[in-house]
Design goal:
Pathway: Purine metabolism; IMP biosynthesis via de novo pathway; 5-amino-1-(5-phospho-D-ribosyl)imidazole-4-carboxamide from 5-amino-1-(5-phospho-D-ribosyl)imidazole-4-carboxylate: step 1/2
Number of strands: 13
Radius of gyration: 17 Å
Strand content: 25-35%
GO molecular function: ATP binding; phosphoribosylaminoimidazolesuccinocarboxamide synthase activity
Number of helices: 6
EC number: 6.3.2.6
Catalytic activity: 5-amino-1-(5-phospho-D-ribosyl)imidazole-4-carboxylate + L-aspartate + ATP = (2S)-2-[5-amino-1-(5-phospho-beta-D-ribosyl)imidazole-4-carboxamido]succinate + ADP + phosphate + 2 H(+)
Number of domains: 2
Shape: globular
CATH architecture of the largest domain: 2-Layer Sandwich
Order of helices and strands: EEEEEHEEEHEEHHEEEHH
Protein name: Phosphoribosylaminoimidazole-succinocarboxamide synthase
Structural class: alpha+beta
CATH class of the largest domain: Alpha Beta
Oligomer: single chain
CATH topology of the largest domain: D-amino Acid Aminotransferase, Chain A, domain 1
Length: 237
């Protein structure tokens, strides 16, 4: 599969067309961003680590019967994926209180949320990815009610699979975001799953092992990503 014209350059990945209109190539770069892209730095090995991490997670989800856009890993930092018509709504599950939820509601960080909460956010960096609801998403034509219901169903399925996976590595899956798109009239999981888009803590010490290490200037960002990968069995070499 040959990489052709650059289709889109995001904050951490570049998307290229291929000779097959149904397939794209994602290139995971070493760029790391925060503050809706206002702060960007290069972290060595990040592209390779996230690509391998994502491929491992996508395969685990596929094995559990969840359709994803992942086709195959092409190289250390590139992957072949289905071409989706992306829905501009992020699905967020929170198993524990952290981040914006703590700031919004004055909760204690780490407070367990039983059952987990589910939220929708409009994907727009310029607006700060504002929180939205199903009614707005339907009225503004971002997705149908049926599509949103399927996205919620799949998001909770992903949560069940990954909570167990991380728990086996003595890790807590605090929260995460997912993006979905349409492929031949089916709702399919897209984008990526890596420590860039979730919060993961050590079960015993509550040490943060995700992108919050970059957001909060805690250091050792990629080392934390590699520790998580090692604990859940991601082959990084």
């Amino acid at each position: 599969m040959q990489k052709q014209q650059l289709l889109y350059k995001g904050k951490a990945k570049s998307v290229y067309e291929t000779e097959d209109n149904d397939l794209l190539i994602l290139h995971f770069r070493d760029d790391t961003s925060a503050l809706d892209g206002k702060r960007i730095e290069q972290l060595a090995r990040k592209g390779v680590v996230n690509n391998r991490f994502n491929a491992f997670i996508m395969q685990k989800l596929s094995d559990a019967g969840i359709e994803t856009h992942f086709e195959k890993q092409l190289s250390d930092d590139e992957v072949l994926v289905k071409r989706l018509d992306m829905i501009p709504v992020e699905c967020v599950v929170r198993n524990f209180a952290a981040g914006s939820l703590v700031r919004r509601l004055g909760l204690e960080e780490g407070q367990a949320l039983t059952p987990p909460t589910y939220e929708l956010f409009y994907k727009d960096d310029a607006l700060g990815d504002p929180m939205v609801n199903e009614s707005l998403s339907v009225s503004l034509g971002w997705a149908t009610k049926e599509q949103l219901a399927k996205m919620e169903e799949l998001t909770y399925q992903v949560n069940d699979v990954l909570k167990a996976l991380f728990d086996a590595g003595d890790l807590i899956l605090v929260d995460f975001k997912l993006e979905f798109g349409v492929f031949h009239d089916r709702i399919v999981l897209g984008d990526e799953f890596s420590p860039d888009g979730c919060r993961i803590w050590d079960k015993n010490t509550k040490k943060k092992l995700d992108k919050d290490r970059f957001r909060q200037s805690l250091g050792d960002v990629i080392e934390a990503y590699e520790e998580v990968a090692d604990r859940i069995g991601v082959p990084l070499k």
